[in-house]
Amino acid sequence: MDQLLVMELIKELAVGFKAARSYPTGHPVFDRAVSRAMSVLTRICAEHSKFSITLAEDGVVCQDVRLEIGKNPALISLVDNLRRKDITSISFTSAVKHDDIAHLYSVLASLQAQLGEHGDAAKMLKAQGTESIMINRTPAASVMKKDTSTKTHEEIIEAIRTLMEIVRRHGAVSESRGPFAIVLNDIEEVSKGDWHSYSEALSGVVDLLPLEKRVALLQDVQMKSFVLTLMSRLKAETLVELITNWERQGRKDCITKVMGVIEKEKFTEMVPNLKKKQINIYEYLTNASINILDDDVAAALTEEDIKVLVQPYYNALETHDAGLRVEALKSLIKLARRLVVDKKFDMATPIILRISVAIEQEAVDEAISQVMKDLQDLYAALTKHEQRDLCEKLVEPFGNISGRAGLSLDLRREIVKFLSATGNPSVLPMLFSFLWESGLYPEVRSAIQGFGRHAVNQAIQFLRDAEDFSVRMKLVDVLKNIGEPSIEVLRINLDAREWYLRRNIVRIFGEIGDPGVVTHLERMLRDEDQRVRLELVRTWGKLNYRDGLVKALNDKSVQVKGEALRGLRKFLDAEEVIDLLPGLSETGDEVYVELLKIIDEKKVFEAMNWIGDLLKRLEWRDDAPAKEIKELGVSALTKLDGDNAKMILLDLQKSKDKTLANFAAAALRRIG
Predict the structure, then answer these.
(1) What residue segments make up the domains of the chain, in order of their start?
(2) How confident is the model over 532-591, as pLDDT tens digits?
(3) Which residues have C-beta within 8 Å of that of residue 463, sequence separation ≥ 6?
(4) Are strands 65-68 and 59-62 parallel, antiparallel or unpaired?
């Protein structure tokens, strides 16, 4: 029996068992697993009406094939589960049907208690009406003797030399066929470690024959493992003629197996000749599990080939199975990338357009998430080859997708990551739209920052139009984090019509922290809106621009003057404070508060009388700001100490303003 087929069957049985544990009968995943196993069984049963898979101590035996468990995950999974259910063998007949395999999977996935209700696994399977698959009809292969007729390396080399002499001397297929078959069988039984050298030697012997005789010698050999290794070493012309013969004879299984072992370079050489002979290579590539969309063999295909090849994948994009749609998209994306790398842009264009449509139409968030990394790789290839129009087509779907209600947070993150990786400023409106989303801000800010000054104009426009306060603050933060690249664009927009935009731009300058902008901001001291001027002096305070803060003391707004004093506090000494007092004596509460804090901090003794006069002027005012000023003034007097301060406090203690009198009395008690 063909070892590759046995291995494939065991793999499918293991996959089917896993599917049966995870999905109910009738689920698409379960049905696909059954169909794949049925496909393998059909191929085996074409040559064997009955066969059994039997557990051995260290592997699995199927007819004349023995497979060791080793580290093969498929074998380990299957054997472990069979042993847990006391199953030593599974026998199949050619009458096996789709439902029989489904019943077998259900039995293998059953709990021990369910098996116990029927007695054992064999009885449970039979109770479901399955006769073509039998459990435990063959005793366990606890021991399997090795063939004592295995040839030594020297014997095989001698047999190959003998074959070579026969070919050279006679050149007749009839004389060579017997010795050739014996050598193949002998090599099949020895260690695979020597197969490479044996296949090289035998392919050299085969090449001694004319092409027609080569084909005659090879066309009827049994497709065992070593034979396939030998096939992979044959010349392209030999393989083309062999495949052509097998096609005429309807031996598609031989073609499929050989297609699966041919190296990509050789296959590329063969494709034009196979197409001339009208061989449907796509069918065999699919059956051989060769994903031509993901392999270098795509280089050998023409535009017409590609059209034929991609149609099944286009059809898969229309199925209801999200998993199939993902697989189709991944394959198409990889093919498109391959074509772009090969600079076959005309061939890549229709595929990329179809990918774009499929992405936009995809309704399952997880399906889109699974192809985002592949899309990023394709976009990078398009960018490298300056295919700007195709880049735009690849980005287009995400405008509509990002606007969908209920889009998962994971997919939104993937989209932000993809848009960021494009480096294309045209994606900025999409990235900015994510600022309205919760849970994404750090990723979105980082993505926008990567575009540098390209993002500034967009950010300013959004800042102009955004009504949501939290979004405006995010935009301010974004511009702040872009930093120096945004300074020039921000300066240009200082004359914006909207006062809040001018204010936010001034604030951003303060957050960026570049002192080089301070003189450019002086014109904002003439801004008609007090809120802008107030933000200006705060920014100057952050940037330590003393001259600007001093100029702001002449502003008509008390709030602006107060903020300017707050910024100047770290610069002023006692003498400078005294110089300021006359000009600020008749201003307003915000100024008085800041002056008192400065006098207190700088210990300006000469300001005691000024404080006393100020507090006298506030008598009979009982509002909260006046109370704060009275408390600050009295506190400053106590810290200035001295007889003059005490005399002022004694005088204030006599005030008819109870609040002021109480503050003064408490202060006198503290200083004694």
Answers:
(1) 3-135, 292-423, 452-560, 572-672
(2) 999 999 999 999 999 999 999 999 999 999 999 999 998 989 888 898 888 887 788 899
(3) 472, 475, 476, 479, 501, 504
(4) antiparallel
Predicted local confidence at residue 8, as pLDDT: 81
Global model pTM greater than 0.90: no
**CA neighbor of 517 nearest in space, from 525, 526, 509, 507:** 509
Q: Judge contact between 667 and 634, C-beta under 8 A.
A: yes
Task: Report phi then psi at 26, rounded to 5.
Answer: 100, -15
Q: Which residues pair with 302 in a beta bridge?
A: none
pLDDT band per the 50, 70, 90 thresholds, residue 297: low
Locate tokens 């995870």: which residue? 22
CB contact set of 69 (below 8 Å; sequence gap of 6+): 58, 59, 60, 75, 76, 79
CB burial of 233-248 (b: ≥16 within 10 Å; e: otherwise) equals bbbbebbbbbbbbbbe
Q: How far apart are CA 637 and CA 609, in angstroms?
A: 10
Q: Helix, strand or coil for residue 543?
A: coil
DSSP string, 116-164: HHHSSHHHHHHHTT--SEEES-S--B---PPPTTPPPHHHHHHHHHHHH
For residue 410, give the 3-state DSSP assignment.
helix
Specify the CATH superfamily of domain 452-560: Leucine-rich Repeat Variant (1.25.10.10)
CA-CA distance, 452 to 31, in Å (whole number)?
A: 52
Phi, psi of 270 (to 5 degrees): -80, -30
How is residue 226 written in tokens?
């070593």
Torsional class of 425: left (φ above 0), alpha (ψ -120 to 50), beta (otherwise): alpha
Residue 148: is its pLDDT beyond 50? Answer: no
Polymer length of the chain: 672
pLDDT in tens, 579-608: 888 888 778 889 999 999 999 888 888 888
CA dist., res. 532 & res. 501, Å (int): 9
